[in-house]
Every structure is written in structure tokens, then in C-alpha cells.
Amino acid sequence: MRLEVSLYGDKSAVLGWQQLFEQEKTPYRYAGTEVTSLSSVNVVTGYPEGQIPAKNLASNDQILIVEPQGDYHQTQKTLQHSSIVFDHNITQLPRNASLELLDPRCGPNTAPMLRQLIVESYHRLNKPYVQIWYYSEPKPTVFLLRQDIDYVDIKATRSLGRLSAKHGIHGTYFVNVSGEEEFDEDIGHLTLEHPTTPDRIEPLSRLISGDNEIGNHGYWHWVFPDVQRNKENIRRAYTFLTGRLHTPVKGYASPGAEWNSELQRALEACHMEYSSDGLRDGGFPFFPYVSGKFASTLEVPCYVQCDASFEKPDFPALSGIIQDYFLKLITTNLNTHQPIAILGHPDFHGDRLEEFYAPIFRAINKHHIPSMSMGEYARWWKKRQGMNILCDLADNMLTVTSQNTGFAVSVTTNKGNWLYPMVVSHHTTNTLRVVL
């Protein structure tokens, strides 16, 4: 028996589900608008509420997940206020449930909830949920250290570089160039005759030699309302960083987690490989859906709560709040398997930087969590997007085949979750067999 999800509905109505299944890399097929030839698990979109299609087709070894759709703008955030209705082997979702995934600033709970619904549907049929794992190694999660060092506080940047090297942590450091403050309601735009970052190259070179990544935080610490100035901001920073540091700069992080569609267009025009713009509070990478299409620049989310959630003079006395939050994230994400992507600003910590980060780094190493730069993870995620698997179940034997290699297979049953490296074959098709 082939294990895959069949997806029914108009192409425009299934985009949210397709985004979810591409995140999961679990086998699925778009089956058109006519509900026939059901798989074990089937998602049907676009039908009016109360008119469940193919009700008589759902047998004991098939599940229908039905999602009515209507005016999305009148039903936003529906998952937070509506119930999922289970009726034997038919599951009724709230209206437009999956379309929330197309909102670039979608809430953090929508994708996990819909994913869990698919997983539990397989479990209700006593079948496994199989996917290409989220990481290149068979590990429960990864650690992504994002640091916005802005105009490069020399002492703090050196200190964090030494500490992270001591613990084997590789991070991504986003840099501004001008030294000018952002536009402020009280003081306007503070301009400087000469940019400050060119005089602070040495600690950046040390970071690069320590196998860290340098990212683009804009020439000015600002996001503009138009495409042209955003492009200029990105390109000027890129030219400076690549020219002075002789290192690839493929990632961008928006100052202050500000974002608009004009920035997204600028990122694509500048051919940025990925960005981290605070669109979502943690979670897996995704391609934002903007102006009726999926963007080509990958968004790599991080958790937005950080030291900059406080006023800088107040933070040293309150740093324990964020430290506890990060330590709890490690425990939580070991179970949810989402990336542990934390954000910080070294200059906020003063002389207490090591006191803040050392326990976090020790916890990462204690649990043997791999550390990656954001660029490394973005490149892995894009490579993973091109991978596919086929899954067949006969009696208690699960057979997974793929023409791709270099990944792990996740098998989840109602008894637990197991990770298996994909077996490399001398043939064109690689095969993994698991006895359940």
C-alpha cells in the first residue's frame, strides 16, 4: 500500500497545504478537484460548510480531512476561535484553516496544528507518518545563533567570538555599516560624516576565521517603504562587507524585524539566498507568499524575544528572564524538533556576556545539538526541497525509496519517533526498509 496524502481542490485553494507538505517533505499528490481514488489520508478543500463530499467513500482504512473555504479576510485567525469536528473517519476543519499559512506573519501554532492533524490521521489508521527529516543529521534539532552586531561593539564582539569558539558554536553575525541611528521620532535621522564600521574590521575578521558567518544588516539600520532605497541599502552593505572582509555574504536580517513587501522585492532583486526578518516567531524556514506568489528568498525564522525586548540600560539586571527563556526553548524544541534559533545583541550585555551565554552553550553541548550558521541551514533546507521519497507499507514492512541521498528518514507511529539515515545504494534508487 502506497502511503501518501491526496490533496483535492482548486490549485489556489490548496496552496497552504502544499506549503505545509513541502515543509514536511512527506509524500503527497495533488489529485485535482474531483474526489476519487482516495489515498489513506485525503485533504479536500473548497467545499461549502456542511456539504462534505464523497462521504460514502470514506471507509475504515481512509480518512477525509475537509476544509470549507470562503472570504478569507472575514475569517482570519479562525483556528484560534473554532473547533475541529471529528465524525468517524471524516474530519471537519474550520473555514480557510490552511490559508492562514499563506500569511507571511502567520501565527506560530497554525502549521504545527495542521501537521499534527495529518500525523494523527495516519495513527488512527494504524499507519506510520513518514517524512524526510528537517536536518541533515539524524538529530532532534539544531542550534542557530543569530547575533545582530549592528555597528560592531569591538569588546563585546571579541568576547562572544572567543566564548562561542570555546564551546564549538558557529553563529551568524549581521552587520550594519554607516553607524547612523535609525530614524527616531524625537531626534529625526542622526547622520555621520564617516561610517563607523570600517574602523572595526578586526573583530569581524576574527569571527570569519572562527568559521562564523557574516550577514547583511543593511548599510543603514533602517527598512524603507520603497523598493529602490531598500535595494540601495542592501547593495551598499553587500559591497562593503564582501570587499573588505573577502567573505560570501548571502543572508540578510532586517533591522528591528521590520518587513514590507517592498523589502521582499528588494531581497529578490539583490539575489539574497535567505533572510531573517522576524516574519514568524520561530519555526521552520519557508518561502513567503507575497503578491500572489511564493518568494524566491527563503525566510529563516528566529525567536523574536531577546535582549532588545528591553531598554538597553535595563537589560543587565533583567538578563535572567531571557536566559531562562532560551534555556526552556532548548528543552521544548528537543521535543517539538523545531530549530533553536535565538537572537541577540552582544553590546547589550556589558561585562556579563559570558555569564549570560555560557550556560546556554553548555546546554547545547550537553544534549549534543549540532550548531549551524543560518546560511548553512538555509542551504540544507533548499537542498532538502529538491528531495522526495516514496513510501510503501506491506504487512509490517515499511519500504522507503528515493533517488536522493544525504538525509535521514523520520518514522512516527503511535509508539514513538525513530530516525534512520537513508541507505545509499549502488543503484539509481536508494532503499530503506523498516520493520514496524
TrEMBL record:
Superkingdom of the organism of origin: Bacteria
Phylogenetic classification of the source organism: Bacteria, Candidatus Gottesmaniibacteriota
Classification via InterPro entries: Glyco_hydro/deAcase_b/a-brl (IPR011330)
GO BP terms: carbohydrate metabolic process
Name of this protein: Uncharacterized protein
